[in-house]
Design goal:
Chain lengths: ~110, ~210
């Protein structure tokens, strides 16, 4: 498993600075939108979610130097598996509990 | 006799290989730990989402959240992630002095973040939102405190690693430890992105 060693070998000042600037942008946009209340709620929700996913990817690529290359294949595969599990936990819980709340209300 | 020699050679080769792979194995193992930590946070986020409007008639996030305060917290953690990256570059250059400088800055930024978070907890409980107040605040404190605890442990780890590096230099083992800590620290920043988006930004829009 040489994936880890490759991580350490990559990275440059430029890469970190680009990552930092992108992250600042993707933080300022959602905060600015919510503080100013410039857009409608559904649109703001969507942009917050997009910025969060964007910043997640920026940090994984520029700070953790993941690139899906052959030597990182096991990191990438286990990462993808965890993303799947996280979605199952999050969406599954919200879905099940909403239905439960809904059914309890009908019983009233 | 020939067989023995072959076996011995084979064993030696095998040993070599294992020695060479030590750092990689440790790093991959730590990656798997980080992935399982992701699942821990996913369960906390899921319970937070499910309980996100269970205020029991008490205080809501709209009453207490201050986005400017959270923005400063976010900036501290984001910059600490960047300064840790700089520290890693210095470690690659074997420049221990600058490595210590960047790690020191990272430590201070992490400490600033933790101080602000503790102040926020104190402020919220003072205003009447304690973990016992409602299901919402239980989920809030459970999620935020778990993240804060991780940051605290990361800082403890940083102190211990600095002592190791000052004592033994940047050996292969210390380099591996430093790499694992950097992964841990970047991971905490990534979790914080989800926290400020889901808890604070969505929270004040309700």
């Amino acid at each position: 498993m040489s994936g880890g060693a490759e991580h350490a070998a990559h990275g440059s000042v430029k890469e970190y600075v680009v990552g930092l600037i992108l992250s600042i942008g993707l933080t300022v946009i959602p905060f600015g939108l919510v503080m100013s209340g410039a857009l409608s709620h559904p649109l703001t929700y969507g942009i917050i979610a997009l910025c969060a996913v964007g910043q997640l990817l920026v940090q994984v690529i520029f700070f953790l130097h993941m690139n899906g290359s052959a030597e990182q294949i096991w990191n990438t595969v286990s990462g993808a598996f965890v993303v799947l599990i996280v979605f199952v936990i999050m969406l599954g819980s919200i879905w099940v509990m909403n239905h439960l709340n809904h059914n309890m209300l009908l019983g009233h | 006799m020939t067989d023995l020699t072959v076996n011995a050679n084979h064993a030696a080769e095998h040993d070599d290989e294992e020695h060479h792979d030590y750092a990689g194995d440790a790093m991959f193992g730590f990656w798997i730990y980080i992935m399982s930590d992701c699942m821990l946070f996913a369960t906390l986020f899921a319970s937070y989402a499910v309980l996100s409007s269970s205020f029991a008639g008490g205080l809501t996030p709209l009453d207490l959240f201050d986005l400017k305060f959270v923005f400063v917290e976010t900036a501290l953690l984001l910059f600490s992630s960047f300064t840790f990256g700089m520290a890693m570059l210095m470690a690659k250059k074997q420049d221990i002095k600058k490595l210590m400088l960047w790690l020191g800055i990272t430590f201070l930024l992490g400490g600033g973040f933790l101080g602000m978070e503790l102040y926020e907890f104190y402020h919220f409980s003072h205003e009447g939102a304690t973990p016992q107040t409602s299901a919402y605040w239980s989920a809030f404190y459970a999620l935020l405190a778990t993240h804060g605890l991780h940051v605290f442990i990361g800082m403890l780890w940083m102190i211990i690693l600095v002592v190791h590096i000052l004592k033994n230099g940047l050996t292969e083992v210390n380099n591996t430890r430093l790499w694992c800590l950097s992964l841990f620290w970047h991971f905490l920043d990534i979790i914080w992105i989800c926290v400020f988006s889901i808890v604070y930004l969505f929270g004040v829009m309700q």
